[in-house]
Amino acid sequence: MAGKKTLTFALMDAPYESARTTTAFRLMDIAARRGYDIRVFAYEGAVCVPFAQQTAHPNALHGRDAEEENHPLPKDWVAALMTEAESNGGSVDWVNCGLCVDERGVADAIEGVRRGTPGDLWSMAGESDNTLIMGTR
Amino acid sequence: MSKYLLIESRDPYESGDVGHYFDLAEGLARGGDDVTLFLVQNGVLPARRGARSDGLDAAIKAGIEILADDFSLRERAIGASDLRAGVKSSPLDAVVDGLADGAKTIWH
After folding, report:
1. In the predicted model, is pLDDT for residue B102 greater than 50?
2. What is the spatial distance between Cα A103 and Cα A47, in angstroms, rounded to a whole number?
3. d(CA A115, nearest CA chain B) in Å
4. What DSSP string runs through A59-118?
5. Quick check: A130 and B40 CB within 8 A?
6. In terms of Cα–Cα distance, which of A36, A23, A22, A120 is closest to B100?
7. Which residue in A has a C-alpha nearest to residue B101's C-alpha?
8. Which CATH number belongs to the domain containing residue B87 in this structure?
9. Domain chopping of chain A, boundaries
10. pLDDT single digits (tens) B13-30
11. Closest alpha carbon to A129 in B5, B108, B34, B96
12. Residue-wise pLDDT tens digits, A36-88
């Protein structure tokens, strides 16, 4: 198991909806800390995870402003994952399914995210040591 | 012999599919494959001592290594001493280890 590995993850869940998103980021964080090369194919709702226009918000019900609320933004998790991987000699290649992006109007993704097709998942899987598909169903 | 890492994230008391997944794990093990079953999220619920799960019982009897995500256990206030025999608390690193080691890894 020694040496640098390349792992592909396919994500399907929209942010804020499932514990699978949290678990996926926990797994990818472990891989990033090991300096692995990480490939991500996001499709369906998961293309919203790196959406650049996510914004922190206050919570009037709890009487907290945006800073106090400290609302987690998944786009920041993606950026942090990229930074963590790079700082350990690894990388993150995040591909959003283009059709899924267009359907949802979320083309404005953070820097480092690129548009692709399911063919990219096929290529990523072929180039990786292993692939984990985390489907919604 | 193949090496399998089967990840179960669902609550067996909510999804009937979980029983079939445990059956798959047991069948692979009885067929001679090296199988690890990793429980995560609500999938850790049948790991509690006293919880009823015929499928998990059968998987344990088949000699499958069964790991339960320590974070998911903590989230649900399930301590290591609360686990049934045959299930061990484990960090999520075990899944990345399995992936890196080339295990055939399936998420459910």
Report:
1. yes
2. 10
3. 25
4. BGGGTB-HHHHT---HHHHHHHHHHHHHHTT-EEEEEEEHHHHHHHT---BPTTEEEE-H
5. no
6. A36
7. A1
8. 3.40.1260.10
9. 6-134
10. 888 899 999 999 999 999
11. B96
12. 999 999 999 999 999 999 999 999 999 999 999 998 999 999 999 999 999 99
Tens of pLDDT, residues B19-63? 999 999 999 999 999 999 999 999 999 999 999 999 999 999 999
Q: How many CB pairs under 8 A join A and B?
A: 46
Q: How far is CA B31 from the centre of its chain?
A: 18
Q: Which structural domain, as residue segments, surrounds residue B66?
A: 3-107
Domain A6-134: state its class: alpha beta
- Decide if B15 touches A, using CB distance below 8 A: no
Kindly indicate the confidence band of residue A2, based on its pLDDT and cuts at 50, 70 and 90: low
A61 phi/psi in degrees, rounded to 5:
-60, -40
- Among B9, B40, B102, select the one facing A130 at the smallest CB separation: B102
Q: Which two structure tokens, joined as six digits, stand for B44?
A: 């850790």
Predicted confidence at residue A136, as pLDDT, reads: 86
Longest dimension (CA), chain A: 51
Collapse the DSSP code of B88 into the 3-class scheme (helix H, G, I; strand E, B; otherwise coil) and give the result.
Answer: strand
What was the ipTM of the complex prediction?
A: 0.95
User: What's the total number of domains in chain B?
Assistant: 1
User: Cβ of A30 under 8 Å from any chain B Cβ?
Assistant: yes
What kind and span of H or E run contains A126? helix A118-127
- Any alpha helices (H) in B2-85, and if so which ranges? 17-30, 54-61, 70-75
Min distance A104 CA to chain B CA atoms (Å): 26
